[in-house]
Here is the input.
Amino acid sequence: MHPILKFGSVQIATFYVVISLSLSLLILLFSKKIEHLDNQSGMTAKQGYDLLILLLFAGFMGGRFFHVFYEEWIYYRSYPAEIFKFWNGGFVYYGGFIFAFIASWIYCRLQKISLAVWADFMTVFVSAAYALGRFGCFFEGCCFGRMTDVSWAIQGRHPTQIYMIVAEFILLAAVILSEKKLKPFPGRLFLLWATFHAATRFIIEFYRDDGRGQFITGLSISQWISLTIVLLASFVFVYKHFLKKA
Here is the structure.
């Protein structure tokens, strides 16, 4: 673990270096991909860039909101000024995901464009951002696993950050290979990714040992969110793929 990078007298949190480099790379790839939009799709570059900015802002706000109000509310209630010191860390992925999804839904409704079509377009970037972002967690030393004696343990713990990275890169590969093949209905790619992403997250959570807020009937809030996503995404997929055709 290397939570701090030192350049002489300058110290920078490794987590933020990883996140900054990852986002810079993904924004570059996004700009390249959006230049090749099919004119027949009705999608425009302006809509794409608007959604990208919205995703980044809503993701940031949602990630911080969930950390403050369900992970560490007792602490922040006593020290409210610390809420705004986001550079000290404290973000929850699912908080960012939920806020970004809601913001995207509102934008698409207002613009009268298809959320499902754009969700498919964004899936590869959402998946890649998650996988790359977990490298930041690994170097920071957060999201760590339970104590174990398995041969691949790191500092005597399950390397849950690595589990999440490997699982997500497998999903990312599947997304890239399937992106141009899955076209029975808009949103299919996103629904399949969301289902398998949430399922792997649900399983890996059992091996984590870091503080994640309250547990309900033995499951973390993230596991309950994962379970909800699996059920909702699976239902929508089955409805659109099978029941709607009947």
About this structure: The chain has a mean pLDDT of 90. The beta strands are 4-7, 10-13, 215-216, 219-220. The two ends are 54 Å apart (CA to CA). The chain has eight helices and four strands.
